[in-house]
Amino acid sequence: MLEVVAALIWRNGKFLICQRPADKKRALLWEFVGGKKEQGESLQEALKRECKEELDISVEVKDVFCQVTHEYPDVTVHLTLFNAETADEPKMLEHNDMRWIAPSEIDDFEFCPADEDILRLIKQM
Prior knowledge:
This protein is of the alpha+beta class. Helix content is 17%, strand content 38%. The chain is built from 2 helices and 7 strands; from the N terminus they run ββββαβββα. It has helices spanning 43-55, 116-123; strands at residues 2-11, 14-19, 30-31, 34-36, 60-71, 76-85, 97-101. The termini are far apart.
């Protein structure tokens, strides 16, 4: 099972989503910023590294928003989504696109299947 971390970053009532690159698995689907935990890293360290690599932002990792396990045809992922904060302005270093969206806009985007349960929770907030 692959350990994956992601950040739920809010700003002015909207949260940050990123569109996967066209050349990766689950191409052009939307997701939260994050990625795979490397050996020897804590989940929090992995999230800080991924946010820096993908968006050139430093984040303050807060509490766990939720955890989900999802089986894709090629891999099973255990995703830990943390509440996180940043004062930095994200830069697209890896993704195809990024947006700040309100919970009411979730249905306008096609997300990675692993995020579906998380998005239902956000809609209920």
